[in-house]
Design brief:
Blueprint: H1 3-14, H2 29-37, E1 42-45, H3 47-56, E2 68-71, H4 78-91, E3 94-99, E4 109-111, H5 113-116, E5 125-126, E6 131-135, E7 148-153, E8 177-186, E9 192-194, E10 201-204, E11 207-210, H6 211-219, E12 224-229, E13 232-237, H7 242-256, E14 263-267, H8 281-286
Parallel strand pairs: 1-2, 2-3, 13-14
Antiparallel strand pairs: 3-4, 4-5, 6-7, 7-8, 8-9, 10-11, 12-13
């Protein structure tokens, strides 16, 4: 099962909360009408969820019972962190940014709402009982501010991977230590800032571009995924018309110092998600003609 969703369910049940099961989608107004009718107080989503919610105009809906929103399942662009965080502030609610992985039982770090305004690009500090560290390419510990591989140590780390029955008898393979596979840096106060994997960098006309940063800019227009191939940037837009997409291309080209022909837009019905609920950019790449 999807670890983040399972943890949301179990944590609410442990706290004595009721859980409303719905067959609707959060991108539909009918879902939020049901949410309000039953007095629901908490909503949890992944980055794609919040891109869609901004697009459908959740801020204009009457949701008097909504008090808590949480986000995990990938890095949410700082612009959206501030958008939803400030909206919840105005409502007297709270918006929590989190980071985690299935191998660490869903939670690794949490950014408290009162630190969001000053650090919207951070995913927070390690959860109680856990410790974050950064290692350089040679395996040595990196000082604050230096980008490297993100490691986590704590009692929530899995024992290892089992692919057959005999593997269950091996005991604890990890020793409570997890190489997350993500790259990032820590500040002097222990907050983690994810930098994105190296395959999220593209080189055009001799210049390097951070695809996550471009994706964050495009997300202000609507749900968008950005991938690079053959010296061009491909923008997959689950929103808008051809005219609106052309306006996006012109705007990004101007901001990035590129020609608009360096950017290609593709209209799709919805952003594809993996089995873990994260944006599946590999599927988008496979769909491009070779």
């Amino acid at each position: 099962p999807y670890a983040y969703g399972l943890s949301v369910l179990t944590s609410h049940l442990v706290a004595g909360a009721s859980v409303r099961l719905s067959s609707g989608s959060p991108v539909q107004r009918a879902f939020w009408e049901e949410f309000a009718a039953h007095g629901c107080t908490s909503f949890s989503g992944v980055p794609a969820s919040y891109q869609h919610l901004r697009r459908v105009g959740i801020a204009d809906m009457a949701l008097p019972s909504l008090r808590h929103m949480t986000q995990a399942g990938g890095r949410l662009p700082p612009t959206l962190v501030q958008h939803f965080g400030r909206w919840m502030d105005r409502r007297g609610g709270r918006f929590w940014v989190m980071y985690g992985q299935t191998e660490a039982t869903a939670r690794i770090a949490v950014l408290p709402p009162d630190e969001r305004e000053a650090h919207p690009d951070s995913v927070g500090r390690a959860i109680p009982g856990g410790r974050l560290s950064i290692r350089t390419d040679d395996g040595s510990a990196a000082p604050a501010g230096v980008v490297g591989q993100v490691w986590f140590r704590g009692p929530s780390v899995m024992m290892g991977y089992a692919v057959e029955r005999a593997d269950l008898c091996r005991g604890d393979d990890t020793g409570g230590v997890l190489d997350t596979g993500d790259r990032g840096r820590l500040d002097a106060d222990g907050r983690l800032y994810l930098e994105g994997p190296s395959d999220r960098l593209a080189k055009l006309h001799g210049r390097r571009f951070d695809l996550d940063e471009i994706e964050a800019r495009a997300a202000a227009w609507g749900p968008t995924a950005v991938v690079g191939r053959d010296d061009r940037l491909h923008l997959f837009c689950a929103w808008g018309t051809e005219r609106e997409h052309d306006a996006l291309r012109r705007s990004l080209a101007r901001e990035l110092g590129l020609h608009r022909l360096d950017l290609v837009t593709h209209r799709i019905d919805a952003l594809p998600l993996s089995a873990h609920g994260k944006l599946d950019r590999r599927r988008l790449l496979r769909g491009l003609a070779p």
